[in-house]
Every structure is written in C-alpha cells, then in structure tokens.
Task: inverse folding
C-alpha cells in the first residue's frame, strides 16, 4: 500500500555526544607551578567545594567560555584541574545551564570543548549504572541541581514547565543540537533541543511528537503515555469530536495542503484522523477510511464502517435525501471542491444514489443511478431498475403508460433538460425529460421525440426512431 508520508526521524547519537567529553580530572599539583606541570593522570575529581580554585577560575574561565563558543553570562567560575592534557573549568551562568569547559594546555593543540552540567550528570549516572567510575560532576553551588538549569532553556523555547526532572538524550546529527528531556510538575513534559552554536535558539516539542519522529530511537522517561496523549486534547476538542484518546500516531501528510495528519483512537468509540497546521492548530477531521488509502490502526474496520455509514446518512439528509445507509462505496474526491464521491445503498428505500458530499461549508449534491450516467458512473450497490416504478407512475400520470424494460441516456440540452429513452413492454418507447428522484417533467413518444437528441434508438422504437438532433 502506498503511504502518503514517511515520518522523518532526527538521528540521535544517544549518549555518544555526552559521553565523549566525560571528565576525570586531577587537581593540578601546586608544587609543580612555576617549574612545569607534572603529567596528569586520570583520577576521580575531589568532590569537596574547597578543592575548587575560584581565583584561577575567575581569571581564566571567561577566555575559556569565549574560546568554546558557549553562551554564558558567568556568575561563578572555578578551575577544576587537569583532564589528560587539558585544563578543566566549571562555570555557572545567568541563563541557568552551567558548563564544564576543557581547554588544551598547549595552545592550538585541540579545540576547546564544553559539556553542560545536565549532560555531565547524565553521563555520570550512566557510568555508575554500568559499574564504571563516574566522571566529574559540576560542583559549584549554583550548579548543584543541574536539571534546574533546563528551566531557562524551556523558557527560551516558549514552553511552560516547572522542571522536576531532566536528562540529556544525545546529539542531533542533523542540527548539532543537544537534546534533553524534562519532566514538569504541570503534567506532561517536553523534549528540548538546544543548539550548541552561540546565538542558537532552543526549540521544544511534546513527548508524543518526539517519540513519533525519532524512528524508534527515543522514549520519554519522565512523561507517561497518558500524559503524552493528553497533549492532543486541545486539538481533539477543536475538532468537536467526543473522544477520550486511547492511542495516537502520526500517519502522514495531506498531499494537497501538506499539513500533518494524525490518527487518534478513542475509548469505547471509533477513532478518526486529525489534520493539523504547521503551528499544531486543528484544520479538519476525517473518519476512518476517508483519508486516502490509509487504514485506521486503532479502530476496528466494522466500527469504522458503522461510523461512516451514520455520517453519510446525516450528510445525505442535510441534502434532502432520506437514506438509512446500509452499504456504501467511497470513490474518491471531486477535483477542485474536495467533495467526497460516494455511492450508497439505503435500507429504507429500494433505490440507491451517488452523492458529492461536502464536509465543509459548501453544498452537497445527490443524484440517482440514472443521472449518474451523466458522470459516467454506474450503480453497483443497487440497480437503476429500482427507479422504474416511480418513473412508470409518473408516465402513467401523463397518460403515457410504460412498463420499462430498458433505458438509455440521450443527453442534456442547452436548456438543462435531461433526456432519456425508455423501452416499454407495450412496444411503444418513450422519450422522457427526467430530473432524478422519480421526477418526470415531460413524456413524448418516439414520433414526437424524433428531433430530440437523435430520437429513439432502443429496440421497439418503431419507424420514427431516427431523427436529427434538436437545436
């Protein structure tokens, strides 16, 4: 089956970007100052605040921040020691998110690197869980609760979140942004993407969207599935559908508008599709089976069929055609208007119909199995013979009785007359101006109708069957 859409997944280097700059620092040997530094050996950093060299940090950290390209209005700084052949600094920032910065001791030997405190904490926890020694953590008082630094990132991204938990997820290979997950006291959390380049503005998305577009690489840890689905409630409410969302997925894009389309499942009721604009606002809803060839996964086919039949019946009644839909066949959409082309069979009347159904503000249109020939359509759910009794009654009322055995569409005149020829069991064919739904405007015999759109041609027409087209 052809899919409308292939969800693009932002590739995540899970943990790699974070762990690559995990720190094990050794405080610099004070006795070595002034006569060359000793070779630093990886060692677990001292954890006491007294081991922080604030004076050296205040002096050297601003240049380290600038060299690393980190956006940070320094409120506190410390020199941590040596990691390999690099000096390590920690800075607290007015923006909230603190950093550890590594600068090569030999100028130009390597580009400075920066690790935010949330990433450092995430890496340390992962190392501890794996039974390995953890790298250094941020130790300045302002960085004591690293995840609180994500509150500033959330504000910049334009979301409301009182941060209760957080973690670094990894590096987005497409944008070189660090991705974080945050838990919020308000309920469902968010995923934040913070560009590493100075001046880059962070962005936010719901856990639902982040999980759907990650290609299976990512799952939120601080937001439950129920909380994630609750983020869809405003869109569902805007659709005016009664639905307690039980599941949801991104299914594709509307090929005309390029808007994104979601499927939602509902507790105890048929689900549907939701089309949303680029800003996430509701655009329109589709019942299952009415968004291209995309099937519903969260709604049983029988339930979807029943829901569509009820919906079609409502739209037909609004178009003044009373039909309790017992079966239907969707034939696509009308070009230009987008109206659905549907053939229906009705349990409360023998004849079916075709319909152009509008789900928007435009009008719907219903035409029966005879008028369908004008649009080169033939009924398959009911037969056109079901219309004959009403047409026969109308012809009898005009004293042109006919037991119809066969019909032929003749065409439409410039005046809008719809002419049909009917073969009659009595042996005299009729030419009828028929407007649908059993309505007969005029009845002629073949002699009178000889000049109407070529005259009679069906068997039984008699000697006056042929003629020239009128007008």
Result:
């Amino acid at each position: 089956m052809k899919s409308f859409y292939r969800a693009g997944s932002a590739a995540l280097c899970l943990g790699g970007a974070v762990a690559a700059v995990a720190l094990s620092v050794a405080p610099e040997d004070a006795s070595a100052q002034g006569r060359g530094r000793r070779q630093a050996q990886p060692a677990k950093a001292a954890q006491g605040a007294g081991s922080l060299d604030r004076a050296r940090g205040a002096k050297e950290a601003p240049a380290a921040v600038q060299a690393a390209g980190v956006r940070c209005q320094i409120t506190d700084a410390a020199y941590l020691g040596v990691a390999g052949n690099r000096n390590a600094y920690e800075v607290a920032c007015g923006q909230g998110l603190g950093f550890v910065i590594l600068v090569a001791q030999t100028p130009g030997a390597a580009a400075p690197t920066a690790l935010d405190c949330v990433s450092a904490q995430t890496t340390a926890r992962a190392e501890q869980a794996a039974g390995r020694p953890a790298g250094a953590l941020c130790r300045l008082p302002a960085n004591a609760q690293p995840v609180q630094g994500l509150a500033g990132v959330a504000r910049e991204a334009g979301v409301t979140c009182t941060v209760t938990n957080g973690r670094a997820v990894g590096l987005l290979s497409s944008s070189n942004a660090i991705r974080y997950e945050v838990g919020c006291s308000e309920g469902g959390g968010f995923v934040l993407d913070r560009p590493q380049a100075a001046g880059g503005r962070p962005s936010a998305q719901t856990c639902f969207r982040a999980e759907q577009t990650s290609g299976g690489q990512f799952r939120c840890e601080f937001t439950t599935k129920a909380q994630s689905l609750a983020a869809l409630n405003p869109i569902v409410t805007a659709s005016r559908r009664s639905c307690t969302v039980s599941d949801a997925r991104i299914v594709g894009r509307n090929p005309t508008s390029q808007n994104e389309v979601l499927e939602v499942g509902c507790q105890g009721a048929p689900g549907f599709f939701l089309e949303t604009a680029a800003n996430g606002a509701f655009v329109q809803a589709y019942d299952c089976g009415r968004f291209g060839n995309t099937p519903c996964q969260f709604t049983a086919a029988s339930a979807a069929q029943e829901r569509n039949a009820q919906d079609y019946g409502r739209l037909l009644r609004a178009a003044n055609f009373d039909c309790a839909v017992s079966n239907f066949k969707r034939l696509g959409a009308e070009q230009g208007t987008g109206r659905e082309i549907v053939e229906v069979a009705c349990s409360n009347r023998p004849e079916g119909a075709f319909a152009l159904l509008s789900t928007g503000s435009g009008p719907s249109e219903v035409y029966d199995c005879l008028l369908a020939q004008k649009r080169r359509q033939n009924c398959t759910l009911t037969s056109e013979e079901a219309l004959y009794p009403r047409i026969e009654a109308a012809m009898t009322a005009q004293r042109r009785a006919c037991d119809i055995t066969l019909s032929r569409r003749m065409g439409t005149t410039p005046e809008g007359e719809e002419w049909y020829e009917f073969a009659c069991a009595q042996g005299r064919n009729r030419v009828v101006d028929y407007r649908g739904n059993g309505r007969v405007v005029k009845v002629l015999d073949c002699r009178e109708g000889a000049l109407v759109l070529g005259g009679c041609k069906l068997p039984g027409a008699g000697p006056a069957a042929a003629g020239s087209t009128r007008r």
User: Anything to note?
Assistant: The chain has a mean pLDDT of 82.
